Amino acid sequence: MQVDKIEPSLDIKKIRFSEKEVILMAEIGLNEIPTATDFVEYASEQYGMSQSGIWYTLKKLKKEGMLDFTEKGEVYKPLALTEGGMKVLRNSMMSAGRDVGRVAEVSV
What we know:
Elements: E1 14-17, H1 19-29, H2 36-47, H3 51-63, E2 67-68, E3 80-81, H4 83-94, E4 104-107
Antiparallel strand pairs: 1-4, 2-3
Helix pairs in contact: 1-4, 2-3
């Protein structure tokens, strides 16, 4: 018996993003690093964040539908923002008076 997976619509929920999440999404949005593993190493060196903390954040953002990347046992997918992630990043960066250093709250 096949069971369909129903995912909540991004249009009806509000998600709060921390400074760390916004910074990582902005870096990922540059599309300069193709794999999550390479990105974790880069971000750890660049921002002084722990690698385990970055992995936790990436997996959380993936679960929320903001990112896509390959995890163990999956077919290769490059590290990238999803459509929802791009929308969140645009909204958080374009909002008047908002800067990356603040916690972003964006309707997606």
